[in-house]
Specification:
9-stranded antiparallel sheet; 187 residues; 14% helix; alpha+beta
């Protein structure tokens, strides 16, 4: 997961990665709100500032088969606290669907940050929708994550299914006889 790493084109749209397809998008400006909670990177003794950083922006959201992408609108009036957020689906450690008594439902994701991505361990992301319910999005996100994990496990298992080793010139269960044995040695 990284802040401001999403490649954008001239129209301020994200540029997809190789083999990446869009599954769902909410691409009307200001209909999605992302709140980031970034814990301190260390204690004051280790050079950290010890302050929790909170950032909140409204913008557009895309779910692809590889990642979750959020982009703030380009209005030119104010500089947003972050321009984009890219979360690989395999970096989502956990998700929690919150249903408060008052207010709209929202989703909380605990994520693993990418090295050099501007975030720290323990970073959480809150996603809120303002023009629709979030339940459909949560369902599609979970199914997409499950499929990605399944496909990764399948590819790992395929890599582990190597053929059994047999020495050249012999069949399994028999010993090879060599012509150049040491003197006085019978094989």
């Amino acid at each position: 997961m990284a802040l401001d790493w999403t490649m954008l084109d001239a129209r301020h749209q994200f540029i997809p990665l190789r083999d990446e397809t869009t599954i769902m998008s909410i691409d009307r400006d200001s209909q999605v709100e992302i709140s980031l909670t970034i814990p301190p990177s260390g204690t004051a003794a280790t050079g950290g500032n010890g302050v929790v950083k909170k950032m909140k922006e409204r913008g557009r959201l895309w779910l692809t088969n590889m990642r979750l992408i959020f982009i703030t609108p380009e209005d030119g009036k104010t500089k947003p606290s972050f321009e984009s957020l890219s979360v690989p689906l395999d970096a989502v450690l956990s998700s929690k669907f919150e249903q408060p008594y008052f207010g709209a439902n929202y989703l909380v994701l605990d994520v693993k940050p990418s090295s050099g991505g501007g975030l720290t361990d323990g970073t959480s992301v809150e996603i809120r929708f303002y023009d629709r319910g979030i339940f459909e999005f949560v369902s599609v996100l979970e199914k997409t994550r499950e499929r990605l994990v399944y496909m990764r496990r399948q590819s790992m298992e395929e890599d582990e299914n190597l053929p059994a080793y047999t020495s050249s010139g012999s069949t399994p269960g028999t010993s090879a006889s060599y012509a150049d044995t040491p003197p006085g040695y019978d094989a």
